[in-house]
Structures are given as C-alpha cells and as structure tokens.
Specification:
The protein has 149 residues and is mostly helical. It is built from five helices and no strands.
C-alpha cells in the first residue's frame, strides 16, 4: 500500500484543491436541481428568496464551515509525505457524503417534499456547498502563496 501511495499519492495542497472541486461540483449539481424546480414549479418571491438565504446561512455557518475547518486541519496535520488522493475526506466525511446523496435521491425519487421546499432548500444548500468549495481552494492558494503547506 505504501508503494501505491508513494507512486500515486498527492500533496496536501492537491488534497485541498480536490476537496474544493468536489464540494463545488456537488453544489453545482444540486443548484441545477433547485433552479430547475424553481423555474418549473415554484413562484419566485421575496419570501422564498429569504428562506433560501436562511438555508444557506444555516448550512454554511453551522455545518459546512465546521467541516471545512476540520478537514483543512486534518490535511494540514499530515506529514510531508504524499497522501492517498481520496483522503481529502476522512471515513466519516465519506459516510456523510454518501448518506446525503442517498437521502437527496430518495427525496426526489419518491416526491417526499413539495417542489417549493426542494427549490428553496436545494438553492440554499448548493450555495453553501459552493462557498465551502471555494473556501478550500482559497485556503490552498493562500497556503501555497505563503508556502505553509
């Protein structure tokens, strides 16, 4: 296993950029669903926009920012050796991600929530995911610039 990591391993900076891309792409995919639902089935009004903003604030401030800090610290604490390209998440992070994907699929597949909820929730959630992704990329860029990684 060590030989594989030595051969295919990546730097801490690459892990941060990879995490940023994964979070950002997940956000874009969810945003497509939210915007499509909004465009087809939900009225755009001030209340719905404010509710979507509230979802964004709740997820970014209370969940994703903690995840960002936890993962950047864990990645930063890795030694100088190269790491597995998938280690931008720890085991718990992968489980949470798979659970969220499964839950999202189930909610949409079985129409468990009305379109108004999907459009508002997905738009706010996706914005928080994309900002978290940009935070990883920014952190990587700043650390590379300051040569701290």
């Amino acid at each position: 296993m060590k030989q594989l990591i030595r051969k295919y391993g990546v730097s801490k900076n690459t892990l941060l950029v990879t995490a940023g891309i994964v979070w950002f792409v997940a956000g874009i995919n969810i945003l497509k669903i939210g915007v499509t639902t909004w465009r087809n089935e939900t009225e755009v009004n001030t209340l719905n926009i404010c509710l979507s903003l509230l979802v964004f604030i709740l997820f970014f401030c209370f969940i994703f920012r903690k995840q960002f800090r936890r993962h950047t610290k864990r990645i930063g604490d890795k030694g100088q050796n190269k790491s597995c390209p998938f280690s931008f998440f720890d085991f718990r992070g992968w489980v949470v991600m798979l659970f969220m994907i499964g839950l999202g699929f189930t909610v949409r597949r079985f129409n468990l929530f009305p379109p108004d909820f999907i459009s508002i929730f997905y738009t706010g959630l996706s914005s928080a995911l994309m900002l978290t992704g940009l935070s990883f990329i920014r952190h990587s860029w700043l650390n590379k610039k300051n040569k701290t990684i």
